[in-house]
Design brief:
Keywords: Coiled coil. This protein is mostly helical and about 130 residues long. The protein is built from 4 helices and no strands.
Amino acid sequence: MFYGIVGVSGLAFVCALELIPEINEGMKLVKFTEEFKMKMAICMALDYIVCFVIEKSLKIIFSDYQARDIAVRRPDQLAREHARRQVQAEKKAAEEERKRLEKVEEFERQVAERRRKLEEWRSGRRAQ
């Protein structure tokens, strides 16, 4: 929507100042006098500036810039959402614990394997 407004404003300035005569011919606009071009351009520029100042001043005066809830939730909705989030958190915690235990088991297996190899190496060296 913003880009549409900017585009139409730009087109209005181009047509008012006759920057691209082909557009004016295509829209069948009559030739403007230099005085009328300047008056129209100044009027349009002042209009945009005044609108901008009014918008900003009203925002400063009346807006607190805080997001509002789209809808107010009932207590039962809040309870269901809390329960759902709690179940999700428990599942996530259980999954993380399972992964942690798998890593511990893998590490312990590697340690046992290295101990076994070290014992084999020691027994092989002593036998010689």
